[in-house]
Amino acid sequence: MDLHHIEWVRDGGGNDPSNLVPLCGYCHDLHTRGHIPASAIRVWKAVLTALNTPNRTTVDTLLHLKRLSGDSIGQHAVYSGGDLLQLAPLINGGLVSAEGTQAGSGSAGRPPFAVFRVLLTQKGQDLVEAWIAGSSERLANSLSPEVGYPPLEPSAEERSGSAANY
């Protein structure tokens, strides 16, 4: 992993975290050779900042869900409850939603289970499409609270007022 200066040092860029972005060595080399434009690097920094993690797995998950949404078989993929724990930052960020599809109480020595269908929300779709397009303007619009994305539905506990306060 390399730390890339968004505004290059030779052009007056410093070591402030706002001017740095983690890139794999391959992408760093491609950028410095002119194959990845500066606008794509700025959008990548914005995506990482918006997701609040330099974890490539998070971005890969969004791209994976985008690909599955256009696949007739992939649209029916399901995820376990354990998978949802890994997706919690994306769910909490309003980028992904999960719908329960099946549950079982377990039998014959098998543990109980639940599976969920996981989908990109409109906000998640907009973010991925802006990133793929390399458009910082579209990215900013997809992350803006003024865009009018519907609020996440409160749980039954929240609606009844019995949710625990942490």
TrEMBL record:
Keywords: Endonuclease, Hydrolase, Nuclease
InterPro entries to which the protein is assigned, alphabetical: HNH (IPR002711), HNH_nuc (IPR003615)
ATP-binding listed as a keyword: no
UniProt-annotated stretches for the region Disordered: 143-166
GO MF term list: endonuclease activity; nucleic acid binding; zinc ion binding
Residue stretches making up the HNH domain: 3-32
Protein name, per record: HNH endonuclease
